[in-house]
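To fix ideas, we now present one chain and its tokenised fold:
***
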Amino acid sequence: MTKAARLSPLHEEEWDPEIRDVFEKMGYETEDDLYNVLKTLARHPKLLKRWLPFANHVLFKSSLSPRAREIVILRIGWLCRSEYEWTQHVRIAAEEAGMNKSDFAALEVGPTDPLWSDGEKAALQLVEELFASKAVQDKTWKELGSYYSELQIMDMVATVGNYTMVAMMLNTFRVPLDDWLERYESF
């Protein structure tokens, strides 16, 4: 059962000039072009404007491959029980990283699922440790270094941090799924 939004997404007629300018600079013209997460965060224009550059780096400018990025995002979304984050990124992962139902089922299990390569297991272990203790253990750090560059590991940590924060906002504000998103069966 879906709970009602605590903070509903703003409709276009509610956008002030500052937020309209932000959305237009992003290439959005109407509320139908925007995700509910952005329309909800539009309630706090200064927060949205300051968060967007970091989120843009994590999603579009990161040194991670699309597959590695989405593995990290989806696993933290699953651990945080963020239906919105998970559902949104299942779609992105399928489109941009060629991921499929087997990958998504394995993400529910985590690094112990046999589907993962050794490098993917190390990335998933990073997510597990950051979620549980907010730090990566030496053993995992060393293992990551066998598969990823220093920049990629830094981007993984930043990705987990960003999407943990996003999950907290999505879950707390109860941002509703966008109408066009298909609900994922395990949530």
Residues 68 and 120 are 7 Å apart (CA to CA). The chain has a mean pLDDT of 95.
